[in-house]
Amino acid sequence: MRQEREWPTSAAGKGPPLFNGKSIPEVPILRIRLPCTSIEGARESASVTGADRVTFEVAKAKEFPGKNYDFVAVFDCLHDMGDPIGAAAHVRQTLAKDGTWMIVEPFANDQLKDNLNPVGRVYYSFSTLLCTPCSRSQEVGLCLGAQAGEARIRDVVTSAGFKRFRRATEHPSTSFTKLDRNLVTGLSSSVTSGAGRIVRKIRLRQEKTNEPSS
Amino acid sequence: MAGLTSGGGYITYDETTNKFSLSEEQAFALADEESSAYLPGAFELALGSLAAVPRDYGILPYGNGMGWHEHVDASSMGVKSSFVQVMPPTW
Question: How far is residue A3 CA from its own chain's centroid?
């Protein structure tokens, strides 16, 4: 049963995969990226590291293929999208009933005055040169920017129909947000210390789900 | 070059031996790709994003955009280097 499931992950930009072959969970993974010439490089990198369970597809965030995913992850790219609400709605439609979406976004506070620090300075600069022009180049062009903050990200995903939203953990420059497809879930407030732990819990829950009922 | 980087505090100069070295903290931030504070990826990203500035002059004032995939490779590789260092160690 588990072998039939896939985890899509996506990232804007180009470059090799973020995972190394040894740390990839033992389930099939579908990685989706923006159209770019280096997708071949990513495939090559995956084969070199032995990540033969990873396949790469090029697709728009609102159109990626597949259904009933247990886990969808977007790494530092939701704010770059022109239509993040449309993308979020598509993620919701493709998640399994008890699936989870993990959003990794740059760390930011909700108020501008609270981002006027060295981290905010760096991110606002990159946001001006990279993130908001990228969003502007696509349909809708919402331009969340790299300092959107939790409240705006929450607005985006709840507008798309998600009911439950929680910041799972954070790093001085990045925050990890977890969303569940439905209100009922096996993942609870105990998930606080890292995305890796989220993955392990999902796998444990999945294994429990697959056990024959007594 | 060594004088430039030591003047900026990126490396350490010992006047008694006339040698340059990296302190533990400098190595942590500048030389250890596995450290949680590895900075060169951010520098690479900065240079990559600045390469687009001439084009930005003709884009941003008019509300137009530029996709990530249209930037030079340094931008994406810089993100990759920066990103790996923030991933939890269990990944």
Answer: 21
Q: Which of A15, A35, A125 sits opposite B80 (nearest CB)?
A: A15
Which domain does B18 fall in, by range?
Answer: 1-31
Residues B56 and B24 in one domain: no
B65 touches chain A (CB under 8 A): yes
- Is B11 in CB contact (< 8 Å) with chain A? no
Number of domains forming the structure of chain A: 1
In this structure, are B70 and B91 located in the same domain? yes
Q: Is A41 exposed, middle or buried (0-12, 13-18, 19+ CB in 10 A)?
A: middle
- Residue A176 confidence (pLDDT): 59
pLDDT of residue A9: 57
Domain that holds residue A88: 2-210
Helix H or strand E segment including B44: helix B40-50
Give the bridge partners for B20, in sequence order.
Answer: B13
Give the model's pLDDT for residue A186.
23
Kindly give the residue spans of alpha helices, DSSP state H, lying in chain A: 39-48, 84-94, 118-126, 132-136, 150-159, 195-210
Residues B37 and B72 in one domain: yes
Say what percent of chain B tops pLDDT 90.
Answer: 21
CATH code, A145: 3.40.50.150
Does ipTM surpass 0.85 in this model?
no
* pLDDT tens per residue, range B8-30: 888 899 999 999 999 998 998 88
**Same domain (yes/no): B87, B75:** yes
Contact A96, A182 (CB under 8 A): no
Q: Taking a contact as any Cβ pair under 8 Å apart, which residues of chain A between 131 and 160 contact chain B?
A: 132-138, 141
